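Take a specimen:
=====
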Amino acid sequence: MTSPAPAISDLSYEQARDELIRVVNELEQGSSTLEQSLALWERGEALARRCEEWLIGAKARLDAARLAATAPTTEDAAPTR
């Protein structure tokens, strides 16, 4: 008996990506019933959304880091009189 699949919201990017690859491979084999295929498709869609959430978050962090790196510091600011 297999254990239930973990909640998608608990998966890291790598876990979601790896499971998505497994889902796609299983769907491509075409050996599942229609009901199993639909369940796999739905899980695959949710996994793809989870991966996208991780990537959007990573991009936001990179953008923030770049902005912080290019922002003038108090030492760079012109003296006020």
Observations:
- The chain has a mean pLDDT of 90.
